[in-house]
Write a structure and sequence with these properties.
Blueprint lengths: L139 E4 L4 H14 L4 H7 L5 H35 L5 E2 L1 H5 L11 E4 L2 E4 H11 L5 H5 L14 H4 L11 E2 L26 H12 L1 E7 L1 H9 L4 E4 L2 E4 L1 H5 L3 E2 L17 H8 L8 H5 L5 H14 L1 E5 L5 H28 L14 E8 L4 H12 L8 E7 L12 H9 L10 E4 L8 E13 L2 E10 L14 H17 L5 H14 L6 E7 L3 E3 L3 H11 L3 E10 L6 H23 L10 E5 L13 H7 L7 H9 L1 H12 L4 E12 L5 H23 L6 E2 L2 E2 H13 L1 H16 L7 H20 L5 H10 L1 H14 L10 E4 L5 E5 L14 H12 L66 H5 L57 H12 L9 H12 L7 H15 L1
Parallel strand pairs: 2-6, 6-10, 11-12, 11-16, 12-15, 18-20
Antiparallel strand pairs: 1-24, 3-4, 4-6, 5-9, 7-8, 8-10, 13-14, 14-15, 16-19, 17-20, 18-19, 21-22, 23-24
Length: 1162
């Protein structure tokens, strides 16, 4: 009878779908046997039935109980922070591992089962046995097609690393495999680029300005006057013949030499030009024209009125003749106390020339020979001696003419060097100019090139301060948190878990169960990534989860096949489904547990495929629910459990709330996140603030508290202004599944599913994207495919996560975070439609984030350099740098001051102390360990004509090995299957004794929940559909399993937190106490049903009774039959006899009428 109804099913050798007849197998040559067939093709060739019990299911076993010879320490399955991987395993990034290790024999015999892929039954090769360039027996090969962009990138990497030949990497670096060597080259090329960018940053900050505008130690006359003892007693300066000296130090030397002169008498000359205080012996500093200069030549055009000048006059004609005293003193002062030169701008020099002064610039020094031209030198012998008959002129006329005819006071370097003079004479003349006529240096500090050097740094500083300022403004919120709103939206709470312990999982699950949100409209979906025993645990993680939820430990549902992420046949995975109700603190919440157990032949980490695969299980399912696409057995069972056991049609769910297994959420968090979604229909993802749950556990956690706070309230709040939060953390994010008005898929769209389920992860870039930063990459994909939508940060929503408390764990975590950030920001930069324009765009902010991430080590070095210079009292520290530092930390301080987070003052101190570790050591370590992956057994070799071939020993995956079927077809078959059961099994639980609940809720029996026509789809929530069907058992925490029938008879939705009250009669069988819906509701019981079966011929219209007539006849028949023995088929036969016509096409109407009558009878 079932075969007539199309219940024949193909045999799946790795999932318990044995044919009821036992002799039928799938025709692997039929293209429609198991592939998607959504365009009218019959699904009869890939029929599914609820799986019977088999003995191939993977039981709960500890990791150390696997039947294998390897050292169990390789696969000790410790926590995701401390687990040590074997050479064939890939490091977990979230509790899970994208395992590429070779599996055991996929097939029990050569060519056994679909997807055998010829030779896939042979044992896997170890990493040591598989040579890099050889294809071993039993391995599968796949030709790789590289894009042009990939080829250009590879060429660039080779251009940067050509100086390291492959033999060096192979024999010295011990990189035997081609793909590992290529990844190392890409890592090195990226590091070279990062180092080059850091060098460019240093160049721009510290070198560019010096090249464009070299540092000048000059003081204008105004600046010199400001360094008087009255204005600046700690830095008193004075000038002698254009040179500026430190008078404070000079005073100390003077006191040691001439103690009778008080220091204040010396310091009073501060800020002044005291050339006349030091008369010069001309013959000691100038050789004249011919090298013979009389010692009696004097050049002193100005008579000093200062009486102290006589104490410095030791010329030849004085009583105390010391011809070399001035020269010796100037050498000492230049070496010990010179601070620079007097500076004159080109404009000031030109003004001097226009005022009839004979000035000129030679090699940057300014010379003034006006007094020499106007008055000239003279002969002055000592008293009592006659004046010698020698010339008094010591400057050549040609030299003087150069100054005389330099009307604008410009540069005379070339003119002076080209004079028609003997080189020796010219050299003597230059010496005379330097020692006697120097008045200062050209001050170029305000020149165009110096202004450019100054303003380019100022512009960079302004941009950075502006970004910090905007981040500060974005973080300001003077309003109090808004009161949480009540919503009636259906939301799935997803918790992927791997090796977490009982305490962590219980806190997470309890926090979700205790959310102040309607229990009937939230669903806990916990996905266990493999049968792994975590470090410190005594049971596998799935067993811990089920024990927390109170599931019956004796239940062991059949494992069902589904498609996973992995190489070759690793894509074929199997999982078990559990469902029920979890009671916690007065909340009763439905749950669905998906346990990935792997194929029976998996021994190393069975079922484990990583966090991304866990996410894809639910995303694939919701995508197929939305498009009514063919589903694999696991997805069909998920649909059945949610719709018929839990009692909510999967199409009702509008939001996906993702939480990590070590995260607890605030009780109003979901309300606040959904409120943001409802108020802005363009939002496709929102996240809240994640705080540390173990802030005071160790010094390592203390250093992270302030960083978490600022990263949310400044970084994410700032990005939220643009509607483009670049990282929605998987530990605390709410996604919109589809648009509320047009029902356009968002998170579950085909583009997101295709890109996020990328299975070929064999390059350095893709590994960093999908193995280290899958949450950030998912956000990148959302921004890429939906540029008109937004992502946002909601500061009122809070969650609490456990941060690493050990340095090694922190090192591993930050390596993943930093590298995934670099690669994801690199992807975002090239997105076409990021909002904004030029410097006011999200692309510009992303570029700033990317550059700032890459140059963190240089930034730390520069900050240390500034601090050291300030501590040393260096006056050359750039003011804008100090302003920027003050702005960064000053505005950050204002953030927590305005929010009254006074404890953040202490956390900020810890953070500042940790800056060298967080911003210097960790980035450098992360950049160099960018290729730190376990590459598994998949490797790259070169084939014929240089073709690149992927080689692995996982076997070839044949999608036909996993049968597919649409839910509507599967549901129709379930209706037919139920025709062979008595109608009494459909009577609500109140008609039976308590032992009626002993039936396993995991069996795929279509329970009574909602009369649903598969062809009619709507996204509005139904008021029916939360009453547990017969045979439902949720485990120890199911309230109905602990009470007698008299109490259960008066119970409606008490199991879901509803009031205990008598169940009303009528067509509705579900939720009695509901919040006011935010949009129109639709009752599937009131939908017009398609009264024609697709396989039946329509009868004559005149012979068909109406729906109302059929329902009246059903009511009449049910009054006179034994419900414990009657079947639906008998009921249809009686109706056909009564109406005298074939009612096969009206089967759906008849079944709906039966359900309504039975519900009323309850």
């Amino acid at each position: 009878m079932e075969a007539e109804g199309g219940l024949g099913t193909p045999r799946d050798p790795y999932a318990p779908y044995a044919s009821p007849v036992g002799g039928e197998q799938m025709d692997l040559d039929d293209p429609w046997a198991a592939h998607d067939h959504t365009h009218g093709h019959s699904a009869s060739t890939a029929q599914l039935v609820p799986p019977p019990t088999t003995n191939t299911a993977s039981p709960f076993i500890r990791a150390d109980q696997y039947d294998r010879d390897e050292d169990e320490s390789e696969f000790d399955a410790r926590s995701r922070f401390t687990s040590t991987r074997g050479p064939g395993d890939t490091e977990s990034q979230f509790g899970g591992s994208e395992s590429y290790a070779p599996s055991r024999n996929m097939f029990t015999g050569a060519g056994a089962g679909a997807g055998g892929g010829g030779g896939a039954d042979k044992g896997g090769l170890t990493k040591e046995a598989a040579l890099a360039g050889e294809i071993q027996e039993g391995e599968t090969t796949e030709i790789v097609k590289e894009s042009s962009a990939r080829r250009r990138w590879v060429a660039l990497c080779w251009a940067l690393t050509f100086w390291l030949p492959n033999p060096c990497l192979t024999y010295i670096g011990r990189m035997k495999r081609m793909d590992v060597r290529q990844a190392w080259r890409e890592k090195l090329a990226l590091n070279i680029m990062i180092w080059f960018l850091c060098a460019c940053s240093i160049f721009v900050i510290a070198v560019l300005g010096l090249l464009i505008c070299p540092t000048q130690h000059v003081y204008s006359t105004t600046e010199l006057a400001g360094h008087s003892v009255e204005n600046n007693p700690n830095s008193v300066l004075t000038s002698i013949r254009g040179e500026v000296f430190d008078l404070n130090g000079l005073t100390q030397l003077h006191l040691r030499t001439v103690s009778v002169v008080k220091s204040k008498e010396v310091l009073k000359y501060g800020g002044k030009q005291i050339d006349d205080m030091f008369p010069v012996q001309i013959s000691a500093v100038c050789d004249g024209i011919d090298g013979n200069l009389s010692p009696y030549i004097a050049f002193n055009p100005k008579n000093s009125s200062d009486p102290n000048s006589q104490y410095h006059d030791f010329r030849s004609f004085t009583n105390d003749s010391r011809p070399d005293w001035y020269f010796e003193q100037m050498i000492t002062m230049r070496y010990l106390f010179r601070r620079g030169f007097l500076g004159y701008t080109p404009k000031e020099i030109k003004n001097m020339a226009h005022n009839s002064r004979s000035v000129g610039v030679y090699n940057g020094l300014i010379y003034d020979v006006t007094d020499y031209i106007n008055s000239g030198p003279r002969l002055q012998p000592p008293d009592g001696f006659n004046s010698p008959n020698v010339p008094s002129q010591f400057m050549d006329q040609k030299v003087l003419d150069v100054f005389r005819f330099n009307s604008d006071g410009g540069d005379i370097t070339k003119q002076l060097d080209r004079l028609d003079l003997d080189p020796q004479v010219l050299r003597r003349q230059k010496t005379c100019l330097r020692n006697l006529f120097t008045v200062g240096k050209v001050d170029n500090r305000n020149s165009a090139q110096c202004q450019f050097a100054t303003y380019i740094l100022l512009a960079i500083s302004i941009i950075m301060i502006a970004v910090i300022g905007f981040k500060f403004l974005a973080s300001i919120n003077f309003s109090s948190p808004r009161a949480p709103e009540d919503h009636d939206k259906f939301v799935i709470c997803q918790v992927p878990c791997y090796t977490e312990g009982d305490a962590s999982l219980r806190k997470t699950i309890d926090s979700l169960a205790q959310l102040k949100y309607d229990d009937k409209r939230k669903l806990l979906v916990i996905i266990c990534d493999g049968m792994i025993v975590g470090s410190g645990n005594d049971r596998p993680t799935p067993r811990i989860v089920l024990d927390i939820l109170g599931a019956d430990p004796n239940l062991d549902p059949e494992p069902l096949s589904f498609v996973s992420l992995g190489e070759g046949a690793k894509q074929h995975n199997m999982g078990k489904i559990y469902s029920g109700l979890y009671e916690c603190s007065g909340h009763v919440v439905p749950y669905l547990v998906v346990v990935k157990v792997g194929k029976p032949n998996e021994r190393s980490r069975p079922g484990n495929r990583g966090k991304r695969d866990s996410q894809m299980v639910l995303m694939h399912f919701l995508n197929k629910v939305h498009f009514n696409a063919p589903m694999n057995p696991l997805e069909l069972e998920m649909y059945h459990q949610i719709k018929n056991v839990i009692g909510v049609n999967p199409t009702f769910y509008e939001y996906l709330f993702t939480v990590d297994a070590d995260t607890t959420v605030d009780k109003f968090s979901v309300n606040r996140l959904i409120s943001a979604m409802i108020h802005d229909k363009k939002l496709l993802g929102v996240c809240g603030e994640t705080e540390l749950a173990n802030a005071k556990q160790s010094i390592i956690t203390m250093m992270q508290v302030y960083e978490y706070f600022i990263s949310h309230h400044m970084a994410k709040a700032f990005e939220s202004l643009f509607g483009s939060v670049t990282c929605l953390p998987g530990c605390f994010t709410l996604y919109r599944l589809r648009t509320p008005d047009t029902h356009k898929p968002l998170l579950i769209s085909n583009q997101i599913i295709t890109d996020y389920s990328e299975n070929r992860v064999d390059t350095l870039h893709m590994k960093n994207l999908l193995h280290l930063g899958e949450d950030r990459y998912l956000t990148t994909l959302l921004l890429k495919h939906f540029p008109s939508h937004k992502t946002q940060f909601v500061r009122d929503a809070h969650a609490y996560t456990v941060a690493p408390d050990d340095w090694k764990v922190l090192l591993s975590q930050r390596r993943r975070w930093i590298n995934s950030t670099v690669h994801n920001l690199g992807e975002l930069v090239f997105l076409d439609q990021l909002c904004g324009f030029c410097c006011f765009s999200m692309r510009f902010v992303v570029m700033i984030d990317l550059v700032s991430t890459l140059i963190q080590p240089v930034t730390v070095v520069y900050i240390v350099y500034l601090i050291v210079n300030v501590a040393r009292g260096d006056q050359s520290v750039p003011v804008q740098s100090l302003i920027m530092l003050a702005a960064i930390y000053g505005l950050q301080a204002f953030v927590f001051i305005l929010r009254r987070k006074w404890d953040m003052i202490g956390w900020m101190i810890f953070y500042i102390i940790a800056i060298p570790a967080f911003s210097f050591l960790l980035p450098l370590y992360s950049f160099w360990r960018m290729d730190d992956f376990s590459w598994g057994a998949t490797r790259l070799v070169l084939g014929e004509s240089g073709k690149k071939i992927i080689v692995h020993d996982e076997g070839k995956f044949d999608p036909r090995a996993i049968p597919l079927k649409t839910w509507s077809d599967y549901e129709n078959e379930l209706w037919d299957k139920e025709s062979n059961h008595s109608i009494g099994s459909w009577v609500p639980p109140t008609k039976f004794k308590n032992e009626g609940y002993a039936e396993s809720h995991t069996a795929s029996l279509y329970g009574r929940e909602t009369v649903y026509e598969p062809g009619a789809r709507d996204y509005s929530p139904s008021p029916s559909g939360m009453y547990p069907p017969p045979g439902y058992q949720s485990g120890r925490n199911t309230p109905l399993s602990h009470m007698g029938m008299p109490m259960a008879a008066n119970m409606s939705m008490a199991s879901f937190g509803g009031p205990l009250m008598p169940m009303p009669t009528g067509g509705s069988m579900g939720m009695l106490h509901q919040p006011t819906p935010s949009r129109p509701q639709s009752n599937y019981l009131d939908l017009p049903f398609n009264s024609r079966s697709p396989n039946a011929s329509p009868p004559s219209p005149g012979q068909q009774p109406s729906d109302a007539e059929i329902e009246r006849a059903v009511r009449e028949i049910l009054r006179h039959v034994d419900l414990n023995t009657a079947t639906r088929r008998e009921l249809r036969r009686k109706l056909e006899e009564q109406f005298g016509t074939d009612l096969t096409a009206r089967r759906g109407v008849i079944n709906a009428a039966i359900d309504r009558c039975l519900a009323e009878a309850a």
